[in-house]
């Protein structure tokens, strides 16, 4: 096995899902978001936990992710959150996936393909209530197009959804509440026009926890499943009981004693001020340890923070371990996680390199083996 790895606690994911299920009010369903290989945690093991704990639906970003779930034996409905293109529809139909639809033209092509295949395609209508991303903008034109879609013989509108832009903002929830009002007002208009849609959903992780009145027919948590926080305001809130499920670790590859005045790494951006011990960690920027962490970030070794020195290389980076007691090759280095009472969170790591926890974990889990515990 590679000397850098990600440890994933399926038990912690299970606890997070149980907490989220406990926050939903029946008959509200839970759709587990498992895109990007389960946010880097491994889509199939995570999906098995979600299934065992009662998740009714899965959500992915692209058709290929849904196909992976089907090939692994999952039979729950699977929503594709992103755009499915015309060339995707044969596989969408073959694997019984539900695309997000946000134009009558998309639906027309899918309807024709479904008719030829002798199938009824289930879809969810996407509404843009404030992200300026995918989705119909509520209004008369959207009403007209959705009515046309509802009349297509081989299309079944199973759901309608939107996405919050600021649900994790605890200090000011006005934009979030405005999005919710826009969404429910528009779905009420559809109902009044005779377009009945069984499932309405808008709540992401933060909204599912903070705003129970916005749960509607289904909640759609992603980050909270993995114990990640949507923003700094969200961390430490009373009653928020989701915790990280992943730690990133490596073996110390080398220990080298160097004299004062030694330049470290590419371009010599760090120079030792004393005789020093320099350790090498076998991970680099291709693994998601950003170059911006050079001379800025830190890792844990022997339960102490050790600064990253010099520029982060493609596959390695260097740390100053001078103050440690007898560091040796093969000692365990913690990049994200806990060691002997010290802790580096994914949020701290991400902040150090100008990113967010969800991004760094998806990248860090991409090239390293996942070890489940």
From TrEMBL:
Its EC number is 5.1.1.1. InterPro entries: Ala_racemase, Ala_racemase/Decarboxylase_C, Ala_racemase_C, Ala_racemase_N, Ala_racemase_pyridoxalP-BS, PLP-binding_barrel. GO terms for molecular function: alanine racemase activity; pyridoxal phosphate binding. One of its GO terms (biological process) is D-alanine biosynthetic process. Substrate binds at residues 133, 314. Residues 245-373 form the Alanine racemase C-terminal domain. Pathway: Amino-acid biosynthesis; D-alanine biosynthesis; D-alanine from L-alanine: step 1/1. Signal peptide: none annotated. Keywords: Isomerase, Pyridoxal phosphate. Pfam families: Ala_racemase_C, Ala_racemase_N. SMART domains: Ala_racemase_C. The modification N6-(pyridoxal phosphate)lysine is found at residue 35. It comes from the Bacteria. Gene3D superfamilies: Alanine racemase, Lyase, Ornithine Decarboxylase, Chain A, domain 1. One of its GO terms (cellular component) is cytosol. Its cofactor is pyridoxal 5'-phosphate. The active site is at 35 (proton acceptor), 266 (proton acceptor). It catalyses: L-alanine = D-alanine. Catalyzes the interconversion of L-alanine and D-alanine. May also act on other amino acids. Belongs to the alanine racemase family. This is Alanine racemase. It comes from Cloacibacillus evryensis. The lineage of its organism: Bacteria, Thermotogati, Synergistota, Synergistia, Synergistales.
């Amino acid at each position: 096995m590679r000397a850098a790895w990600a440890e994933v606690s399926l038990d912690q994911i299970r606890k997070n899902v149980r907490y989220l299920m406990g926050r939903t009010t029946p008959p509200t369903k839970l759709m587990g978001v498992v895109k990007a290989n389960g946010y880097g945690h491994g889509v199939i093991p995570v999906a098995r936990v979600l299934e065992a704990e009662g998740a009714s639906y899965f959500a992915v970003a692209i058709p290929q992710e849904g196909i992976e779930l089907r090939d692994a034996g999952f039979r729950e409905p699977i929503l594709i959150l992103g755009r499915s293109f015309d060339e995707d529809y044969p596989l969408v139909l073959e694997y019984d996936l539900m695309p997000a639809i946000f134009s009558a033209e998309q639906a027309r092509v899918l309807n024709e393909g479904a008719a030829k295949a002798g199938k009824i395609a289930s879809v969810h209508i996407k509404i843009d209530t404030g992200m300026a991303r995918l989705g119909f903008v509520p209004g008369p034109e959207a009403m007209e197009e959705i009515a046309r879609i509802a009349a297509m013989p081989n299309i079944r509108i199973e759901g309608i959804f939107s996405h919050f832009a600021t649900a994790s903002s605890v200090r000011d929830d006005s934009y979030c509440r405005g999005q919710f009002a826009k969404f429910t007002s528009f779905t009420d208009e559809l109902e009044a026009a005779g377009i009945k849609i069984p499932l309405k959903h808008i709540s992401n992780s933060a909204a599912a926890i903070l705003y129970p009145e916005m749960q509607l027919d289904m909640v759609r948590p992603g980050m909270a499943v993995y114990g990640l926080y949507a923003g700094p305001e969200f961390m430490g809130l009373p009653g928020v009981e989701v915790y990280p499920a992943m730690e990133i670790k490596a073996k110390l590859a080398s220990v080298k004693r160097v004299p004062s005045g030694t330049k470290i790494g590419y371009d010599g951006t760090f120079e030792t001020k004393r005789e020093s011990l320099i350790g090498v960690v076998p991970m680099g920027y291709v693994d998601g340890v950003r170059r911006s962490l050079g001379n800025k970030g830190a890792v844990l070794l022997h339960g102490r923070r050790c600064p990253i020195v010099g520029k982060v290389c493609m596959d390695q980076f260097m740390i100053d371990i001078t103050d440690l007691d007898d560091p040796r090759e093969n000692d365990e280095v913690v990049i994200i996680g806990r060691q002997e009472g010290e802790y580096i969170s994914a949020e701290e790591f991400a902040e150090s390199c100008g990113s967010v926890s969800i991004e760094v974990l998806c990248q860090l889990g991409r090239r390293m083996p996942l070890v489940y515990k």
